[in-house]
Amino acid sequence: MTESDKLENQIDPFTESKNHSNQWWEIFILLAPGGFWLLFLLVFPTLIILELSLVPDIHPGEVVNPRGLDNYFHIFDPVHLRVLGRSLLFAGEVALLALILGFPVAYGVGQLAPKRWRNLLLLLFILPLWTSSLLRTYAWISILRPTGLLNTILTTFSLPSFEILNSPIAVIIGMTYNYLPYMVLILYASVEKLDRDILEASGDLGATPIQTFWKITVPQTRSGILAGSLLVFISALGDFIDPELLGGASSMTVSRLIYNQFLGITRNWGFGSALSMVLILLTSLAIALFLRYGDRQESDR
Fold first, then answer.
1. Residues 6+ apart with CB under 8 A from 212
2. In b/e form, how buried is each residue of 199-223, taking b as 16+ CB within 10 angstroms?
3. Which DSSP category does 69 fall into?
4. 165, burial (CB in 10 Å: exposed 0-12, middle 13-18, buried 19+)
5. How far apart are CA 70 and CA 52, in angstroms?
6. Whose CA is closest to 184, among 130, 97, 242, 122?
7. Three-class DSSP labels, 261-298
8. Strands, DSSP E only, in the chain?
9. What's the gap between Cα 5 and its chain centre?
10. Which residues contact 135 (CB under 8 A, 6 or more apart)?
């Protein structure tokens, strides 16, 4: 190689720096529109909530106390801890039920149904999402109320009626129904990618259907299971409509408690903001755990 060829192959530091600068400008231009709305609609409101959560509850004639963590300490009251625990329990139960009900549907559509019918079947299943969640909840009220459709059918066959409305069971039913399509959509994306040859080979080697399911199907769809469960869990944790309309006093959740602090009788914006920050923290923690361990499990496959 001649000296001139060596000079041509050398990278000009100025040119490299200029190209690197142009690349950063291109990235900034592409991220600027979405980043602006993210800051305006997510980051700034969260900072406002954080500021309000540090303000103590002030009543007329009281001395203004300095900002502190009193609102957060108030969360550790046994009554509020029970509400928070109930919310986590409801969200976990809904995620589990949605997974149990949604996986067979996703598997049937993604693996057993003919390919020409899959999109239509998936569309029919998610069709309820085209209507308002409020209307779907009112439909469940008409079904579960004492004189509703469910008890009418039961009494027609001389069966005992059930008082389900205004109970935790009604809340679980409503939330599971509303979030089940999301679980199916995510699971379908994972189930559709299953290799049928591996499933058939497992059966040829003597594995039972249950062994094939736990050792092949579940590991290959693990990312979809985690993503769907996380989405349903987060959505159910912050749900307000179903607990408010389908649940009674025994179904108080953290979302209803936050509503009472801002628009209810209590009117304690500081404590409501502290509860909101705890809810945001729990959601962020769930997402962080999924990104941490979900990606690790996906890379180990």
1. 199, 202, 203
2. beebeeeebeeeebeeebbeebbbb
3. S
4. buried
5. 12
6. 122
7. HHHCCCCCHHHHHHHHHHHHHHHHHHHHHHHHHHHHHH
8. none
9. 59
10. none
**Packing angle, helices 168-191 and 78-107, rounded to 10:** 40
- Three-state DSSP at 10 gives coil
CA gap 127, 144 in Å, rounded: 22
Query: Where is pLDDT greater, at 299 or 291?
Result: 291
Using DSSP's 3-state secondary structure scheme, residue 205 falls into coil
pLDDT in tens, 188-237: 999 988 888 888 888 788 888 888 888 889 988 998 999 999 999 999 99
Tokens representing residue 297 in the block: 């499990």
**Sign of the dihedral defined by the CA atoms of residues 229, 231, 236, 241, in that order:** negative
Q: Which two tokens stand for residue 198?
A: 């591996």
Q: Which of these, 254, 284, 286, 295, lies nearest to 272 by C-alpha position?
A: 254
- Cα separation of 110 and 224, whole Å? 13
The structure tokens listed for 54 are 């540090």
Identity of residue 42: L
**Tokens of residue 175, six digits:** 């939330």
- Cα three-residue angle 113-117-122, rounded to 5 degrees: 85
Kindly report, residue by residue over 69-125, the tens digit of the pLDDT.
888 988 899 999 999 999 999 999 999 999 999 999 999 898 888 888 888 888 888
List pLDDT tens digits, range 35-56: 888 888 888 988 988 888 888 7
DSSP tag of 251: G
Q: Closest by alpha carbon to 54, among 40, 44, 64?
A: 64
